[in-house]
Amino acid sequence: MQPVVVAGGGLAGSEAAWQLVRRGIPVHMFEMRPVVSSPAHRTDKLGELVCSNSLGSDRDDSAAGLLKEELRALDSLVMKAADAHSVPAGKALAVDRERFSRFITDALLKNPLFTLTRREVTEIPARPCIIASGPLTSPALASKLQTLFGQDYLYFYDAVAPVIELESVDMSVAYRRDRYADGEGGDYVNCPMDEQQYQTFYEALIAAERIPLHDFEGKAEYFEGCMPVEVIASRGRDTLRFGPLRPVGLNDPRTGKRPYAVVQIRQDNAEGTLYNLVGFQTNLRWGEQQRVFRLIPGLEHAEFVRMGVMHRNIYVDAPRCLDGCLRPRGMDSLFLAGQMTGVEGYVESTAMGAVAALGVFSFLNGLPQLQWPAESAIGALLFRLKDATNPRFAPTNANMGIFPPLDEKIKNRRERHEKILSRGRLRFLQFKANNALFFSEPGEK
Ligand SMILES: Cc1cc2nc3c(=O)[nH]c(=O)nc-3n(C[C@H](O)[C@H](O)[C@H](O)COP(=O)(O)OP(=O)(O)OC[C@H]3O[C@@H](n4cnc5c(N)ncnc54)[C@H](O)[C@@H]3O)c2cc1C
What we know:
This protein has helices at 11-21, 63-73, 77-84, 97-109, 139-149, 195-207, 229-233, 286-293, 318-321, 346-364, 377-384, 413-434, 436-439; strands spanning 4-7, 27-30, 54-57, 86-87, 92-95, 114-117, 129-131, 154-160, 163-165, 175-176, 189-193, 261-267, 274-277, 304-306, 309-316, 334-336. By secondary structure, the chain is of the alpha/beta class. The chain has two domains: 4-158 and 313-439, FAD/NAD(P)-binding domain (3-Layer(bba) Sandwich); 163-307, Elongation Factor Tu (Ef-tu), domain 3. The strands form four sheets. It has a six-stranded antiparallel β-sheet. The two termini are 20 Å apart. Residues 218-224 have low confidence and may be disordered. Bound molecules: flavin-adenine dinucleotide (FAD). Flavin-adenine dinucleotide (FAD) binds at residues 7-13, 30-33, 38, 40-41, 50-52, 120-121, 132-138, 141, 311-313, 338-340, 344-346, 349. One of its GO terms (molecular function) is flavin adenine dinucleotide binding. Its EC number is 2.1.1.74.
């Protein structure tokens, strides 16, 4: 059998290769390091962690924990490496990064079905292939992807505003109204500020600690139209009031008066449970984001499911470009994997490596593509990659807001989350039982 090409040996590429070779499918991986380096990688190892050594929460009462469980059920190489080389980090799964990536590299290299060539991929291969070249895909390959998807559908930067749970917004302070619309009601939820509240918020915002931009992220032209909120603020006390916090046309229906400034939040998922802070793309440190944005009236107890980020990140507009199985629309044997599919995070990227591999496996065996249950963590991530509600797609991580709502209404948050996760667990088990061929051990019939 002709080997499947895997372009990129990061987390997703390594996971994808593993999932294929353990199913008897030969893989030819092309990894450009160390011949060509990415701006963030430091070693020539497969599965290198570019930044933090934490793979996030491993708690069974979290979305990230459920995602890890599902990957373990798939015999994930990345999870094996993490479990074998974990270091103490409370409820998070942190690893000894050097041993972690060595474990992944060794496991792949010793598999007779695996071949590694250290070379940059500059063309999209014409045979069954998984592109897993990551958020820092080399410019030559990125330009080929841009040609494939079109200029408007491949993003080079993530400039994302924080996302919060709507139910954590204090609606006795905030109100629904669309700009210039009559009366109450509308798509936007507005958080009004008086002059004193604005002043307090403004001072906290400009003094808050920022994440330094890497050299490769510093090009201002990429930030056109999506300037970090703290940078807009630092241009003058009133720039926000004439920009994203403009109160015109947003009179508070309870007082009939125009607030001094208004922060608007807008629906971010199809279910309407998550909202993003409009115009609040930010480069503040995550802890600082929570501290400062909770000064906004109505958001004092906001639950953040995703923090704002601004960094180099090549990813596709998945809902408009991919077919739900990680293939560019209209293509049957080309799959994307990892962060570039529109997920964010080490484990999420890994999961999209596994999904792509199982997609290739189905394709090569003439089987229909798997329908991952939307209630499972992997299925919920895939569902988000199909959700075209938001005109400007932003990458997503595993959080409680990505799951479909329960049929029943449960007020208690913890209880509701438990129910959502146990439903996910059950649906994943059923999915596994119904697709035994994909979950069998190597050598099993
Ligand atoms: C600077 C930065 C910091 C991040 N920090 C974190 C963090 O702390 N925690 C977290 O959960 N997530 C983080 N992420 C997000 C994401 O989880 C990681 O980027 C993750 O490594 C993505 O996995 P991947 O497999 O998609 O890409 P990668 O792990 O980056 O793997 C891609 C691989 O493809 C190779 N490659 C690129 N182009 C080519 C080519 N043309 N030909 C051949 N090989 C190629 C690269 O060398 C690399 O080995 C960060 C992202 C960035 C950019």
